[in-house]
Amino acid sequence: WQAVGRDNLMIKVPATKPGLPAIQQLIGEGINVNITLLFSQKVYEQVAEAYLAGLEHLVARGGDPAKVASVASFFVSRIDVMVDKMIDERLPNANVNAREMLAPLRGKVAIANAKLAYQIYKRLFSGPRWEKLEAKGARVQRLLWASTGTKNPEYSDVLYVDELIAPDTVNTLPPATMDAFRDHGKIRKSLEEKLDEARQVMASLERSGISIDAVTDKLVDDGVQLFADAFDKLLGAVAHKRTALLGGKLNSQTATLPSGLEKLVADSLESWRHDGNVRRLWAGDAALWTRQDEAKWLGWLPIVEQQRKRVGDFASLADDVRREGFTHVLLLGMGGSSLGPEVFAETFGRQNGSPELLVLDSTDPAQIRTFESRIDPAKTLFIVSSKSGSTLEPNILKQYFFECAKRAVGADKAGSRFLAVTDPGSSLQKTAEQDSFRHIAYGVPSIGGRYSVLSDFGLVPAAAMGLDIGRLLDATQTMVRSCAANVPPSDNPGVMLGTILAAAGQSGRDKVTIVASPGIADFGAWLEQLLAESTGKHGKGLIPIDAEPLGAPEAYSQDRLFVHVRLASEAEAARAGTITALERAGHPVVRIVVTDRYHLGQEFFRWEIATAVAGSLLGINPFDQPDVEASKVKTRELTAAYERTGKLPEETALLEDAGLTLYADAENGKALSSARTLVDALKEHFKRIDPGDYCALLAYVERNKQHGDTLQEIRALVRDRKRVATCLGFGPRFLHSTGQAYKGGPNTGVFLQITCDDPPDVDVPGQKYTFGIVEAAQARGDFQVLAERGRRALRIHLGSHVAAGLTTLKNAVRDALA
Prior knowledge:
Elements: E1 11-14, H1 19-28, E2 33-38, H2 41-60, E3 70-75, H3 77-90, H4 96-102, H5 109-124, H6 128-135, E4 142-146, H7 159-162, E5 169-171, H8 175-184, H9 195-207, H10 212-246, E6 252-256, H11 259-274, H12 277-283, H13 303-308, H14 311-324, E7 328-332, H15 339-348, E8 356-360, H16 365-374, E9 380-385, H17 392-409, E10 418-422, H18 427-434, E11 439-442, H19 456-464, H20 469-482, H21 493-506, E12 511-516, H22 523-535, E13 543-546, E14 560-567, H23 573-584, E15 589-594, H24 600-618, H25 628-645, E16 655-657, E17 660-663, H26 666-671, H27 678-687, E18 694-699, H28 705-722, E19 725-730, H29 739-744, E20 749-755, H30 771-788, E21 792-797, H31 802-817
Parallel strand pairs: 1-2, 2-3, 3-4, 4-5, 7-8, 7-9, 9-10, 10-11, 12-13, 12-14, 14-15, 18-19, 18-20, 20-21
Antiparallel strand pairs: 6-15, 16-17, 17-21
Helix pairs in contact: 1-2, 2-5, 5-9, 11-21, 14-19, 15-19, 15-22, 20-24, 21-24, 22-24, 25-30, 27-31, 28-31
C-alpha cells in the first residue's frame, strides 16, 4: 500500500482465520481491502463484522472512513461444482426418497448460498450501528461475485449473472460470459427473488448429509493452495532470473543423483513448497523441528544484515591491531569458537600489513609448545573466545598465555594484549573486565556456537587478521537472499542441499564425504562440526567424512553422498575426473563452485540453512548437543580426582606389544580377550566393522603434518580393505565437533583411540594438574562415554615416542587387514 502509493489500490486478504484480524487492522489503518476466497455465509458475516469494527477503529482515531473502500469477493460456481460431484457420487446408491431430495439440488446450491449471504449484507449494513458510520462518510462493503463462469454445460451460460443482480454488488465476468450476457442476459433484482426457495435448498442439502460448512472449508483450503502455488511459481521465475543475472556473484550448486534418490528429493521439495516450510523456517516455527526450543536459536538467520551495519566497527578494530604493531593473533577457543576463524586463517593466509592469525584449540602440551615457539608474546594479540565463558580449554589456555604476556610486557600491560569474544554476562566477560582486556566483543545469545562464524566469533578474528569484512558480508548477503523465505524450495540453494542431505541419509547414504579443493580445504573441518553436532543425536544423524584420501569408485560402498566444494581458480583436473567417475558409478554427487575466497561466507550460510532443513526432515533438533556434556563431566571428575590425590586413577591394560599398550572397557575387552599381540587385537577389532559402518581414528597427539600423514595412511588402509568410511579427529578438538555424533548418532562407528605421554609437560597456572593431565583426562573421559553408549572402541597408547609409535601402529594395521 505504501510502496504503490495510490488511493484506489486494494490489498487482497483471504477470508481465513488468520485473515480476519488482518482485515480489521488494515481497514482500521485506512487501507482498502479486497476480501477473497469467501464461500461461507458464516464466514461472510465475520468478514463484514471485521470491516465494521475496522471502520469504527478508524473513526475513533480521527481517520476519514469516506476514503476507505472494500469488497467481499464471494465465490459462486465452485460450490456447485463440488456439491454436484458429491450428489452424483451418492445418487447411484441412494434410495428413492434420497434421490428425490438430492437430484433437484444440482446447480441450485451456489445461487441459494449467495442469495442468503446478500440478506446478511442487508442486515449488517442497516440500523443504528451502520447509520452512525454512514454519517461519517463510510461506504458499504460491496459483495463481489467471483467465479461466475458456468462450468457445467448443462446449465445456462449466464446462470451466475442473471441470478446475482442487486444494488451494491459487483459481478466479475469472464469475457465469454460477458458476451453471452450482452446477447441474452436478463436484468432484474434477482437476488431478492425466491428467498424461501433458497432457504429450502440449503435445508435440504443439510438433511441429505452434505455439510455446506465442510464444502466451503475445503474450497477455502483449495483456493489458498491455488494462490500459494501461483505465487510460488511467480517467485520461482524471479529466483531463476535473479540467479541468471547474478552470474559469478553467486556460488553455483549442481547435483547428480540416482533416479530413486532424485524422486525422494523432488517429492520432499514439493512437500516443503506445499506446506510453506521455508517461510515457517524464517518465521522461527519450532513445529518445523521438534516443538522444543528451536525458535530461540535462530539468531544466525538475520546476522549478516546486522553485521553489515557494523562494518565500520570491524575496520576500527583492524586499524587498532595494525597500529599496535602486532605480528600475530593467537585465538584460544574450541569448536564453534575456533573452527570458523581457522577457516579464515588457513584459506586467506597472512594479509599484507596485518598480523598472522593462528588458532590453538588443543590441550596437547606439544601443540601448546609449538604455538608458543611461533609467537612473541609482547607482539601478539590473544583472542580468548568462548560463548559461555565456562569452557575448560580456552580458560586454562588464557591462564597460561596471560602469564606469558606478564613476563613479556609486565603485569600492568598484559591485559592490553588480550581480547575476549563471548556472550553478554558470561564469566569470560567478568574476567576480561577484571584483567583490563584491550577489547570485549559480544556474541548473540540466540546463535549457537557452530552457527556463529558470521557473528563476532568469526568476524572479529577475521578483522584482526586484516580481511575486508565489508566485502565478505556483501558477498554472503547474496546467498542469504537466495535462501530467503520468498524463494521456493526447488530454487533455494540451502533448502535444496538440506533436502538432498536428508533424503540421502534416509536412504542409507548417511556418510557425507566432503571433497574440498586445496585452497579451501579447511572448510571441511568447520563443516564436520556443523553436520555432526547438529544431526548426530537420538540414534540418527549424518556422519561427515572430511579429508579422507579420494579413491576410485570401487573403494566405496553404497552409503556415500559426495560433496565436491571447489574454488573456481583451482581446476583440479585429476580430482574432477575421479568425481565424474563416481557419478558414472551411480554415487550421488553435489558440486559447489566457490567463485573466490571471499565467497566462503556464502557457503557458511548455505550449509547452515541446509543443516536446519536436514534436521527438520530427519526429525531432530539441529540446535542442541545433548551428548557433548557427557565427556566434559567425566573430564571434570578425573581432573578433580587429580587435584585431590595428585594422580589419575590406575588403569589395567588389555595387553602390551611392540612398545604399545592397549586398553578396553569390560565389554570391548571380552571381544578382544583372545588377542595376544597388537596385530591380533587389531584384527579382532576390525572384524567388528560391518557393512555401512564407519571407522574413526581419535588421536590425542599433536596435530602436525608428520602425525597427520601417518594417520591418513592408516585410514586409507582401513577404507580400502574394509570398504567403509573413515574419520580422523585430533583430541580434544573433535570433542567439540564430531564427538556428538560419535556418541549420540547411529551406533555404526568403530573407534580406535590413540593416546601418548607428554614429556615435557606444560603446567596450568594456579592448578595442580598440567595440560598433559587434562588431555589424558579428556581422552579417558571420552573413552568411558563411548563405552557407556555401547560403542565398539579400542584405545592404543603410544608412549612418549609419538611418530615412531604411529609408524608401528600403521604397520600393525596393515598386517591386521592383510
